[in-house]
Amino acid sequence: MGTPTLFTGILGILIAITVVLFIIAQNIVENDPKWDDPRVAQTIQQRIAPVGKLNTSGAPIEVSEAGTVSLISEAQAAPDYGSGEKVYNMVCQACHSTGVLNSPKLGDPAGWGPRLDKSKDVLYESVLKGLNLMPPKGGRPDLSDEQVRMAVDYMLDSLN
Predict the structure, then answer these.
(1) SS3 at position 72
(2) CA dist., res. 124 & res. 77, Å (int)
(3) DSSP for 30-60?
């Protein structure tokens, strides 16, 4: 019965020594005056601030050169290209001028053959929603449906 009492006594002495050392350490260390400086507090808050916020609104975002993020209004989302040719030149030509991933080339009736058998509305839908390896709206979700239709019309007109 002497062993548990001995262990309890040693444990009590170690705890007492720890408490005494903690009190001595608290009295030896002085308060650092820089912690009272509001600039230090502000710097700390900037360092521990979240890097970003979750965009749950579905609106597109814009990142400035300074690194700030802001939501883009619907009016700002897609530039107004003005014509199907401009939409093609800015978005579609990357794939449709070279035939990347078996995409039909501009002005190539043979490449467009199987697609021309379908109605224009079916062609619009496959471009708007994506088909095979082509992403919806050619990978530019900020384009309006009308802009996509203008680009499709421009590419179809090039076949004549």
Answers:
(1) coil
(2) 21
(3) PPPGGGG-HHHHHHHHHHHS-S-----S---
Token digits for 124?
Answer: 């619009």
CB 84 within 8 A of CB 150: yes
Q: How far is CA 153 from CA 42, 76, 82, 95, 158, in A?
A: 56, 24, 13, 17, 9
Query: At residue 62, does pLDDT exceed 90?
Result: no
pLDDT digits (tens, 9 = 90+) for 4-58: 788 999 999 999 999 999 999 888 877 777 777 888 888 888 888 887 766 666 6
Phi (first) and psi of residue 69, to 5 degrees: -110, 135
pTM over 0.85: no
Give the residue from 156, 140, 133 showing the smallest Cα distance to 92. 140
> Which candidate, 111, 109, 103, places its Cα nearest to that of 127?
103
- Name every residue whose Cβ is closer than 8 Å to that of residue 40 and which is 6 or more positions away in sequence: 34
pLDDT per position as a tens digit, 124-151 = 888 888 888 888 888 888 888 888 888 8
Hey, which residues does 105 pair with through a beta bridge? Answer: none
